[in-house]
Design a protein that fits this description.
166 residues, alpha+beta, 2 domains, five-stranded antiparallel sheet, 43% helix
């Protein structure tokens, strides 16, 4: 009978140890999944390359369509919205999404400002995104900033000629 009691306690100890190991493994798995999700989320976030242009959304849309045509990238969708637009294209087999958004509060005296975000595939291609943004920028006229007027120059006072020696 004593062997049977010890056998039951041994079995219970093994079950408890296995449950503890599985519980700890679950925490490690959950932590690993959480870390992997964080890494994937960061990679997705970094895949969107953004640039700001001093231009209204319609001018940037037109420049984007021209740039895509020059890069021989098909225009699949062009969906305007109240504050921007979403344009879809392809680079080879990879989808390319361009998001145009009008800034709400541009700096004073600068005029309308549009942000353009480019995402190639899911996690991005920084080189191709920068190339697309450069091509868009080529078709936008640089903002004409009015140069500040130079400060008025004061006319130096005239000195009287020296008296003639006699």
């Amino acid at each position: 009978m004593a062997d049977q009691g010890r056998s039951w306690w041994s079995w219970a100890a093994y079950v408890a140890l296995a449950a503890l190991a599985l519980g700890n493994a679950g925490c490690l798995v959950a932590a690993g999944v959480g870390a992997a999700g964080g890494v994937a989320g960061y990679a997705y976030y970094k895949g969107n390359v953004t640039r700001t242009y001093v231009a209204n959304v319609e001018d940037v849309r037109a420049a984007t369509r021209t740039a895509l045509a020059e890069l021989q990238m098909p225009l699949l969708k062009d969906e305007p919205s109240k504050r921007g637009a979403r344009i879809e294209s392809r680079a080879g087999d990879e989808p390319v999404i361009l998001s145009l958004t009008l800034q709400d509060n541009p700096p004073p005296g600068q005029g309308p400002v549009t942000d353009v975000g480019v995402r190639v595939a899911t996690f991005g291609d920084e080189g191709l995104s920068e190339h697309i943004l450069d091509q868009i920028g080529l078709h936008l006229v640089p903002s004409q900033q009015v140069p500040a007027a130079p400060p008025p120059t004061a006319v130096p006072p005239q000195t009287a000629p020296p008296p003639l020696a006699k």
